[in-house]
Design goal:
The complex is a heterodimer of chains A (258) and B (392).
Chain A lengths: L6 E6 L5 H7 L5 H7 L1 E4 L12 E7 L5 H13 E7 L1 H5 L11 H8 L23 E3 L6 H12 L11 H8 L4 H5 L15 H4 L16 H10 L4 H8 L7 H10 L2
Chain B lengths: L6 H4 L6 E3 L1 H13 L3 E8 L2 E6 L10 E6 L2 E6 L15 H4 L3 E10 L2 E5 L8 E6 L1 H13 L18 H9 L1 E6 L9 H4 L11 E8 L2 E8 L2 H7 L5 E2 L2 H15 L10 H6 L6 H8 L5 H5 L6 E7 L5 E8 L9 E2 L2 E2 L4 H20 L9 H4 L7 H13 L2
Parallel strand pairs in B: 2-8, 8-9, 9-10
Antiparallel strand pairs in B: 1-11, 1-12, 2-3, 4-5, 6-7, 6-14, 10-11, 13-14, 15-16
Helix pairs in contact in B: 10-12
The chains are: A alpha/beta (258), B alpha+beta (392).
Chain lengths: 258, 392
């Protein structure tokens, strides 16, 4: 069509880089992606930096420092569409565990020169700071879902990323329920689908990597987890992981934390 | 060999036969020879699932399933091949697959061309279809416009789901009459089992114990009779037929659950009952009940594009009335609360299904009870509402 290719930028905040590596992990599709968009900023892939504004910004990582909070505002200003990728960017990530503790205490205990550390007391989601156009869940994200989201935005349609439970995904794949058939505690019934039912397929309960599904009933699930032998600490630990600061998981964690 | 009359007539005596374990072997081989993919029960991942079978050795010999609300365990007991009842899957996995391509499109200059997916119809032989499952197929036959019905939807039923109909018509059904009832079974109170009422090509009753391990075979169709003729067998005697009757009777009297009488009108007059709030507090709205239900048929449509936008695919995927998007109409979803979603599911299944399709949407298989992660029990919910009426 001879149109200008949309400019794509990939930004990193507090995170492990795993989600943006999912883009490089696309392998077969990567060349197609590189052909469909102009990769304007993606330090994991190229040193080339093309100035904004950008058509699509993929944002990985949480806001953990005053500098992060300032930088995300500038990125938002330069981005037509801003999509967060992964649990850090959409819920604060595993590092949001500090939200429930005394950060000053951690800094003193861990660092030889605490005065060098400039951090916020909390790790928070991108949407707590700027408007987000779409949130892609997961720790890490699923690369097929990432391609789907890019496809949808490039073609001007809604991404097919259903917010239903992990259970739906297990049943569509014919995976036998580990909770019912094995008595294995599982967060699947309150967790959003998307990973490809990775753990239940391997006889493990769901760890909740994709965060709360729509209308999650965490209290009813917690009651069943108790019936399966978990105590309050087990339940609190389960909800206090990669999506600890997602509201539904945070509240259920609060209920069970001693 | 000269052949006269119907095949059924040619079978001796009462038309019933007895085959041994080698007969089961011959049955699977015959069906495979006829080009069927034989699907039947086998143990996988701690449950009996419906997977392709190569031989009778794949069957779950000596395994039974203990079932209760939110609980399923396989345990060793006896040596029957069909001592288990129903597992997490139903035959709809094959007749109405979780994902189907409806069409694909390709950009073609200013317009686009649409093509239908490859039209090859799989030929399945289902081994071990229970009475409740045959009843469920009969329900879906109505839903998908294969069987005419007198329900309210009849006027809207101008179209047949051609994919479902083709797979259904091509399928060979071998029923198994249950000799054991599971902890969440309630087919007896729904009138669908434990004996297969019809709609099969062949029906087996496993006769096991007292030093014998055989199967009584009953014929339900010409197609079934023609296959039976090719198996090593003997004519059934009265004692075989009696033993089969006793086995089924044992299952009938050991149902784990019972549905109240006439749940259709009970629920219809209790749409604002406080029990809906109680069940909503427990319901995870995870959709497991609808995924495992052999009659639930709801789907959504998903469009996929490639990065260029030159190639599109339209898919149909199982959906559930327990998701928010399912009831999305212009402006928002109309069933926001778990209360409204659970009520929609249960009243549809047991009550409004009658008006729509002229039958119950529930066949008493008990899957929704067993596979609910928190063990919500449709029979208990109906009973609780009934009991409250009794208290006036």
């Amino acid at each position: 069509m001879g149109q200008r290719r949309p400019k794509l930028a990939v930004w990193k905040f507090s995170s492990c880089d795993g989600c943006q590596l999912s883009l490089l992990d696309c392998e077969d599709e990567l060349l197609t992606v590189a052909g469909a968009v102009e990769i304007a900023y993606f330090l994991e892939a190229t040193r080339v930096e093309i100035r904004g504004p950008y058509d699509v910004s993929l944002v990985e990582g949480s806001i953990g420092t005053p500098h992060d909070a300032e930088r995300i505002r500038k990125i938002r200003q330069q981005s037509k569409t801003l999509i967060t990728i992964g649990a850090c960017a959409t819920a604060g990530g595993i590092q949001a565990l500090r939200n429930f503790r005394d950060v000053e205490g951690f800094i003193r205990a861990v660092y030889a020169r605490p005065e060098f550390i400039d951090t916020l007391a909390t790790s928070t989601a991108i949407q707590d700071h700027v408007k987000v156009d779409f949130e892609l869940r997961g720790c890490p994200i699923n690369k097929e879902q990432l391609l789907e989201v890019l496809n949808a935005f490039l073609n001007g349609r809604r991404p097919v990323v259903p917010p239903h439970s992990q259970c739906v995904e297990c049943k569509l794949h014919g995976t036998v329920c580990v909770m019912v058939a094995r008595g294995t505690p599982c967060l699947g019934p309150v967790t959003q689908a998307g990973c490809g039912n990775l753990c239940p397929r391997h006889d493990r309960g769901c760890y909740g990597c994709f965060g709360p599904k729509e209308t999650p009933n965490t209290a009813a699930l917690a009651k069943q987890l108790t019936a399966l032998g978990w105590n309050d600490a087990d339940i609190a630990n389960a909800f206090r992981s990669f999506n600890a600061n997602a509201e539904a998981f945070r509240r259920e964690g609060d209920v069970h934390e001693g | 060999m000269e052949r006269t009359g119907t095949v059924k007539d040619r079978l001796a005596g009462n038309g019933k036969a007895v085959v041994g374990i080698e007969g089961l072997d011959a049955l699977i081989a015959a069906l495979r020879d006829d080009g069927y993919a034989v699907i039947g029960p086998r143990v996988r991942d701690g449950a009996v699932v419906y997977d392709p079978l190569d031989s009778p050795a794949d069957l779950p010999w000596g395994w039974i399933d203990e079932q209760d609300g939110g609980r399923y365990r396989l345990v060793r007991e006896g040596e029957a091949a069909f001592g288990h009842v129903v597992g997490p899957q139903s035959w709809k996995t094959y007749l109405y697959p979780p994902r189907q391509t409806l069409w694909t499109g390709r950009r073609d200059g200013p317009g686009f061309t649409v093509s239908a997916p490859d039209g090859a119809v799989p030929r399945y032989a289902f081994l071990g279809v229970r009475g409740c499952e045959l009843a469920a197929m009969a329900v879906q036959d109505r839903v998908f416009g294969v069987t005419p019905h007198g329900g309210r939807a009849v006027g809207e039923q101008q179209f047949t789901d051609s994919g479902y109909a083709a797979r259904r018509n091509a399928a060979f059904l071998i029923a198994v009459n249950c000799g054991r009832a599971g902890g969440t079974c309630f087919c007896a109170s729904m009138g669908t089992g434990p004996k297969a009422a019809g709609g099969y090509d062949l029906a087996l009753t496993e006769l096991v114990g007292d030093g014998r391990h055989e199967f009584l075979v009953e014929v339900g169709s010409e197609k079934g009779a023609a296959v039976l003729e090719r198996l090593p067998r003997r004519a059934a005697e009265t004692r075989d037929v009696d033993a089969a009757e006793r086995a089924v009777e044992r299952a009938r009297t050991h149902m784990g659950r019972t549905m109240v009488e006439d749940p259709a009108s009970l629920l219809a007059r209790n749409l604002e009952h406080p029990r809906w709030d109680e069940v909503a507090a427990r319901c995870l709205s995870c959709a497991n009940c609808t995924m495992v239900c052999p009659t639930c048929f709801c789907t959504t449509v998903e469009d996929k594009t490639d990065l260029t936008g030159d190639h599109v695919e339209r898919w149909r995927r199982w959906d559930s009335c327990f998701t928010v998007d399912f009831s999305y109409i212009h402006g928002g979803a109309i069933r926001q609360s778990a209360r409204s979603r659970y009520r929609q599911w249960m009243t549809h299944k047991l009550s409004s299904w009658w008006e729509q399709f002229g039958t119950s949407g529930c066949t008493g298989c008990g899957r929704c009870i067993t596979w609910c992660p928190v063990g919500i029990d449709i029979t208990e919910e109906a009973q609780a509402i009934k009991n409250s009426e009794g208290r006036g």
